[in-house]
Amino acid sequence: MIEIPSDLHPDLVPLVFLLGRWEGAGVFDFPGSEKCNFGQSVSFTHDGRPFLEYVSHTWVLDDEGKKVRPLESETGFWRIGADRKVDVTTTRDEGVVEIWTGELAEGKPQIDLVTDAVARLPFAPEYSGGKRLYGYVNSDLMWVGEKATPAVPLRPYMSAHLKKVVDPREWVADLKDLPDDGIAFFK
């Protein structure tokens, strides 16, 4: 079930399905880089203003699913207009800043984005643009990213399946009227 926080800016209600912390795994595959499985942790938070703050960390996984090393990190801000247009700004650890634009699909929690502008620091890898598709499917967050460079045309390079992480402290706050000893609950 999706809950709308009472302090969420009204403009963000269409994006409420993104809120929270998500974790999962995916696949990374791009020419010139090592193909690998990766783990990911993503958070979408808000502070009452008309944007979501976004933080993503990914790391390479070995064959047993253990962390090997960091892969990519990015932070950003998500906004939505009355016309369902979504604008996102991101900064990646490799020295790339992106402005994404797209829209929230009509009648379903799916967002299609495409880069509108890309800026790179001199040491950043070649990159000319991308596309992303995010979808909320059966209470999970799934996404696929496409990437282009001057040498490689636009192609899928990352995708992941993420599950919402629930903090047990949230559950405890919702439990009212439990007996002090906890045992009477099971009688």
From TrEMBL:
THAP4-like heme-binding domain mapped to chain residues: 12-164
Residues spanned by motif GXWXGXG: 20-26
Pfam families: THAP4_heme-bd (PF08768)
InterPro entries: Calycin, Nb(III)_bact/plant, Nitrobindin, THAP4-like_heme-bd
Family to which the UniProt record says this protein belongs: Belongs to the nitrobindin family.
Name this protein carries in UniProt: Ferric nitrobindin-like protein
Highest taxon of the lineage: Bacteria
